[in-house]
Amino acid sequence: MGKGVAITGMGMISAIGKNVTENYRSLISEKMGISRISHIDTIHKNEIMVGEISATNAALEKQLGLPENSWSRTALIGAIAAKEAVTHASITEMNDCRTGLVSGTTVGGMDKSEQYFYQYFEDDSEWHHINGLHAGDSTQKIAHSLGLEESFSTTISTACSSAANAIMLGARMIRSGQLDRVIVGGTDSLSKFTINGFKTLMILSDTYNTPFDENRKGLNLGEAAAYLVLESDSLIEKEGKKVLGYVKGYGNANDAFHQTASSENGDGAVLAMKKALQVAGLTPEEIDYVNAHGTATPNNDLSEGRAMLRVFDGKVPEFSSTKAFTGHTLATAGAVEAVYSLLALQHNTIYPNLNFKTPMTEFDLMPQTKLKNKELRTVLSNSFGFGGNCTTLLFSKNA
Amino acid sequence: MKPVYINSVGSVSAQKTYDNDDFLEEIMTYNDTILRVIDPDYKAHIPPAAARRMAKGIKMSTVSAKTALKEAGLENVDAIIVGTGLGCIGDSEKFVSAIIDNKEQFLTPTRFIQSSHNTVAGQIAISLGCNGYNYTYVHSAISFESCLVDALVQIRNEEANHILVGGVDEIVAHHVDTHRLINHIKSEPVSTEHLLQSNTAGCVMAEGAHFFVLSNQKKETTYAELTAVTTYNTLSRDKLTEKTIDFLSQNGETLENIDLIILGNNGDDGFDSYYGILSDGIFKNTPQAYYKHLSGEFDTASAFGFWLAAKILRGGTIPKAVQLNQIKAKKPMNILLYNQYRGENHSLVLLKRC
Amino acid sequence: MADLKLELKEKIIEQLNLEDMSVDEIGDQDPLFGEGLGLDSIDALELIVMLDKDYGIKLADPKEGRQIFESVETMANYIEQHQTS
């Protein structure tokens, strides 16, 4: 059906690398980023493992040329990843065309809010963080650090599909001619808020997460920021830009089943994947690799596995979850995996689903467990979130 | 371009707006620094089993969304798009304070789950059984306008026929107390009638839930046509006039065609000057209205302005309580809305009678 | 035992915001989930915290809750057998 939307830049920071190149190197050398938590003091530190970005806030602030303790970690990593994407796309003048920014986040500045929750009433030293609780504040800060002005700049928060939805909106805005260029992705830092929240849901693993394994014990939380630059065909033509790949299809659907759990047969996931295929004008047989949501919770992997079996009519192509590398980076997951999907296309590489030992009893599904080279034309990437929010993105090598 | 119709409205606000038959006939006046909504009979709309875990924001939204769906005569929609500055912030705050007070022990999941910004959109989807597109925008003063931008693209590109869009925010203690520290909220009470003459910093903070059905089909219930929306993350005072004129001309309108401009003045003497640029400038001779003295300020307060515009276009009259200047308006054809918050996140929205 | 059951009913009503219910309406053997009181998986997590906080009983796997929380009676039995504090 429709032509894909061109991607001209990408940037990211995660537990397995401070930029795109480092991330790719970790992926192909099977280097996990999961460890005990070091930047947050929590009583759960010995019972959880996380995908933490190694740099301290002070180091990130130094990198951005900001004074110490000026922004939330969410905004800091977001600005770093967004800047890398913009540089990668060779953008020198940010406001020379209709440029937008769409960012996904769930925690926003919660890391600071929870730290100074009571201190705000004792002294004024941290008052500059008060407004940071607004999720949109992180996006405003990123826009500011990019020099983006008088622009469409917005924030999406649909739990763990936030960044995937940001990419989808950006692609739709370019396709419909509303924007010439848009920076899309997401950012979420670790916080006590999410650690304790997921703890109450009893879906945190006490060891390395094992997606799609029969004995999976839950997820590892992660933190990351990742952004893509999408540009219109006319802009690409005008500037003779190199295209990294295309957002070929997208679909968002709601499971409408439960506030946190996915339906047994993954109805929302099936709808999202089908919509994405329809937008792309591709058949299920034309998908070469699936980067699954695969959080390693009992519920997600069963529901997603069943959904894939339904969409691909039993013939699921090679698939893997990269959550064993990065942990579940919540809002950012869709953007992290968008970058990984593009790198997969560029290098014709399928990443291994680490830590997998035993197939699930409910169905006959084996993820790709070894790094594999294969000519890839299309990659399907899933991101599902609370509130039944299901999003599928389809990336392709050719328009 | 395909027209986009506003086919119904639903509102829960600091005014008695939950009944669509009423249009600001009785004005609730206040003398305060924060305002709460006039509660509708939640129990009449929400079964107790469903209500037991609902935060205030979800309850307000449920009533407002149900009102809009009922008026539009729809059981379901193709998409649900919600804007909220802070989501169910009350539950977020309670969860954070429990983490601190109980030293990360004995925490329960409900408040955490409700804290997810998309809990309102998700809950509406569950209650309707709506498997369609489900988005939540959380970008301060343009949270609601982001929904409008998205919905316009969807209907014009035939991706959806009927979309439920809404804006919701609830007011809670810690948020108010902290924002009072940084003077975002007024320190002294101000009366409804004198909001714009307060000459003090900050706003009167409030809450509310507004939902609308946008559709590609005109119906008996249609209020107006939504013709254009645009937002700017930054906009300096000296560029505002130029941007406004550009916006109108890009959408085939002229200054003279605007019969009413609805402005988002909130009585903050640091930032109301933005509105002054338009009201004393290019729209000096245009009938003007304002509404935040009635609704209070919150991230999605502009949805009250949108509600007001829709009501005016359908009914043809401008309630006295919202008139900002003395210029008599004829039955308005075209209404322009302008809003910003603290000099950021500006929006222009254009509505037309139909 | 009767006291414990009454106490549990009161706690269930309070913890799970079952505002419109009274203790008389919950029978000792009434199923708490599904067709009975209509509780769901989120309520189960709330009850797990209640076991921990009020009775010092920790459950590692939410699946264990399914049998324990079948009814007020099964809960009371489990608490009597496992209570440490």
Keywords:
heterotrimer; B: 354 residues; alpha/beta; Peroxisomal Thiolase, Chain A, domain 1; 2 domains; ten-stranded mixed β-sheet; two-stranded antiparallel sheet; 12 helices; 12 strands; 33% helix; globular; C: 85 residues; mainly alpha; Non-ribosomal Peptide Synthetase Peptidyl Carrier Protein, Chain A; 4 helices; 52% helix
Tell me the number of structural domains of chain C: 1
The number of strands of chain A is: 15
Radius of gyration of chain A: 20 Å
Strand content of chain C: under 5%
Residue-averaged pLDDT of chain C: 90
The first-level CATH class name of chain C? Mainly Alpha
CATH superfamily of chain C: ACP-like
Q: How many structurally independent domains of chain A?
A: 2
Biggest sheet architecture of chain A: 10 strands, mixed
**End-to-end separation of chain A:** 11 Å
What name does CATH use for the topology of chain C? Non-ribosomal Peptide Synthetase Peptidyl Carrier Protein, Chain A
Mean pLDDT of chain A: 97
- Structural class per helix/strand content of chain C? mainly alpha
| Total number of beta strands of chain C | 0
Q: Rounded to an integer, what's the Rg of chain C over CA atoms?
A: 12 Å
**Which architecture of chain C would the CATH scheme give at its second level?**
Orthogonal Bundle
The dominant shape of chain A is globular
Structure, explained:
The complex is a heterotrimer of chains A (399), B (354) and C (85). Chain A is α/β, with parallel strands linked by helices and 399 residues long. Helices cover 32% and strands 19% of the residues of chain A. Chain B is of the alpha/beta class. In chain B, strands 4-3-5-7-1-8-12-11-9-10 form a 10-stranded mixed beta sheet, with helices on both faces. Chain B is globular. Chain C has one domain: Non-ribosomal Peptide Synthetase Peptidyl Carrier Protein, Chain A. Chain C is globular, with a radius of gyration of 12 Å. Classes of the chains: A alpha/beta (399), B alpha/beta (354), C mainly alpha (85). Chains in contact: A-B, A-C, B-C.
